[in-house]
Amino acid sequence: MTGRSTSIHDTNRAALTDLPPSAKLVAKTLEYEGDLTQSQISESARLPQRTVRFALTKLEDNNIVRSRISFMDARKRVYTLSTEEG
Known about the structure:
Layout: H1 10-16, H2 21-33, E1 36-37, H3 38-45, H4 49-61, E2 65-69, E3 77-81
Antiparallel strand pairs: 1-3, 2-3
Helix pairs in contact: 2-3, 2-4, 3-4
């Protein structure tokens, strides 16, 4: 967790309206808590791992969330909200 939060931009808000509630909750969790791994999102949002995985896939497909390999553990990915510029 970085403690840095990124807000959901207006363009991403419009894309969120058509997504399932779990995806909206995951996006809000990332907005409030900053960069997180899948297991951290699952723990924070109190959602099952499978639900978080589905939500992250939907969010990545809509360019709302992006992921990168964790520097602490290369087996994990770190998820962050996409910015308008990126």
